[in-house]
Amino acid sequence: VEYVDEIEFSALIDDHDSDRRLLKRVSIASGSWDVVVVPVDDTYDPSFPFIIFGSVMIFLIGMGVSFWMYSNMRRTVEIYRAKAQAEAERTIVTNLFPETVRERLVEGAKAKNELIRRRARRRKAKGSLNVSDHLTSEALFGSKPIADYYPAVTILCADLAGFTAWSSQREPSQVFSLLEVIYHDFDEVAKRRGIFKVETVGDAYVAAAGVPNYRDDHAVVIARFADNMLDHLHLLVNQLETTLGPDTGDLDIRIGIHSGPVTAGVLRGDKGRFQLFGDTMNMASRMESTAGAGNIQITAETAALLKVAGKGHWIVPRDGKVMVKGKGNLSTFWLKKHARAGSHVSSGGSLGSLDAQEWFPKEENAEKAKVERLVTWNVEQMCILVREIVARRDATRAAAAKGRKPARMPSLRKMSLDTASDSTETDVKLEDNVTPLEQVKDVIYLPPFDEAAFRSEVDAREVRIPSKVVGQLREFVTGIGSMYRANPFHNFEHASHVAMSVTKLLSRIVNPRQHNIEVSKTSPSAVTDVAASIHDHTFGITSDPLTHFAAYFSALIHDVDHPGVPNPVMMEEMPMVAENYKHKSVAEQNSVDLAWLLLRGDEYKEMCEFIFENADEMKRFRQLVINMVMATDVMDKELGALRKERWQKAFDEEYREFKSEDEDKNRKATIVIEHLIQASDVSHTMQHWHVYIRWNENLFMELYDAFR
């Protein structure tokens, strides 16, 4: 065999074929062999495997560090959340229990845990548990009861007068809004006074001084706190009336105070809290229940302590004796209001800067302030409805822009007030010698359900109303309020009550079976199906924001310029007005014309253009207003007979007149919206006894004045 020497790569460059291969012929035995030598690149690095291994190790180490950092970050977040939760729980416990009680609760919890461990070991050793161990508090909780005796304590019990009647007309969120604002203010004053808040039960507020920390002036500080509560409540309810509606400013408070010994502690178990027990607690509650609205009643024991403290001029004996359950007839005292200068404690800055005259305006200014608060509240409610109108209009336009065919109203000629009017303007011209009563229609056509607009509609709360429009709306409502006379019953406050009732009834007109569906968790198509079903169930009333606005507007203006006498008397005393309205529903027609004349004034042009897109919308709005206001005349027998006949056409199968499904549905809708305002106009007869008595008394006084 001929050996082939190693050839350098450089030599191969000069002696190679086209494929860069070196050819050598080698003779072996009987023949020869061709040997092909392939060049080898001398750049080969034998450390390459180590590089690969190092890269993999670096990657694994990086992954390990990343997982460690992620785990550490999660642990940090969990620790932060645990600290936040512990802080929140500590705050709750701090609010529920005094400091000394909290320490004993912690010690008791530790003792209970140790007791549980001992029982577990005993059960494991003996296989049974002695039942007698459960017959004592120590056996159940591992420590003695958390209870102490306090010989000198003054307890205050307060309750909102008129709250039950007020809350029966409100939504749950409004009820809690009122209580949270009032209780927060009381709590702030209590902290500044160093008074311990015991509990709140519904609209009742209980506080005490001398427990859990002893103090000599417990009766004096509670008396000052009671006076602060009375002052602050009157200011707060007046402020809240602008957002929570009529009667809020009429809420008052009654307060009872008693001094004596109490037993205080924590009844351990589920939902345990710090409580007071004993006759002193019961007596304070009895003083509150017999105090009467706006009064602070104290017992002879508390009065004696105030006299000893040199505050005898703060109290005055109550005339007669008070019958107290379980005690018999007792002599009690009134705590004078604003008996001492500088006793006010601010709960937020502004309250403390007011003196007594600013807190309680004179009678002539009080009524004016009340009307202003009602105006503010009505404007806010109407702005909500206007936003819904604009949101629906924008949704209809958006649906049309996407090429979806919007739902169309039936021909407005069926309910036109002026067939010659230009639909591009928002003016409505009235026919000569045609009274509002003669314009009442049997059927008012409401818009059909617009699926495309419903899908495109945004939250009405996002709609922005120009400040100029809001200003004009406020001026309009103020003008309406000024057109009401100072009648005991038919006044601006009554109109605001009717408007509030209409709003509440409209919010309740839904199909209960559909209303309970959690549409927020379903698909958009399912939500649309539910909305369409509710639309059909309510004859289209709930789907039309303009109808809602018309109902509120009608309630607000339905008794404008009411003289305080029935229609027959009004026709005798005002023959010219009676002649103008052809001796039918004179007061109601006069209210419609006066309110409409005010609305169409040039000073409200921008407001009308913002609310009503065109003349057709304003025509339909006016038609709704006319029908609803005329429906409030329930004393006219002829009108009553016509309404009964229309009801039979719509709902009585024996007399039902069916021309088309659309007409039948809208006739029912027209009847329902008229009945809504009728029911709201006399809603006080179906509300809480307190409301019933108040407004019935007002109606009696008005009728009595008319009789005289």
Automatic annotation (TrEMBL):
Its cofactor is a divalent metal cation. GO terms for cellular component: plasma membrane. SUPFAM superfamilies: HD-domain/PDEase-like (SSF109604), Nucleotide cyclase (SSF55073). Its EC number is 3.1.4.-. Residues 404-708 form the PDEase domain. It is an enzyme of class 3 (hydrolase). GO terms for biological process: intracellular signal transduction; receptor guanylyl cyclase signaling pathway. It comes from the Eukaryota. Residues 154-288 form the Guanylate cyclase domain. The chain crosses the membrane at residues 48-70. Binds 2 divalent metal cations per subunit. Site 1 may preferentially bind zinc ions, while site 2 has a preference for magnesium and/or manganese ions. Residues 398-427 are annotated as: Disordered. Pfam families: Guanylate_cyc, PDEase_I. It is found in: Membrane. Keywords: Hydrolase, Lyase, Membrane, Metal-binding, Nucleotide-binding, Transmembrane, Transmembrane helix. Its main location: membrane. GO terms for molecular function: 3',5'-cyclic-nucleotide phosphodiesterase activity; adenylate cyclase activity; guanylate cyclase activity; metal ion binding; nucleotide binding; peptide receptor activity. Belongs to the cyclic nucleotide phosphodiesterase family. This is Phosphodiesterase. It comes from Entomoneis paludosa.
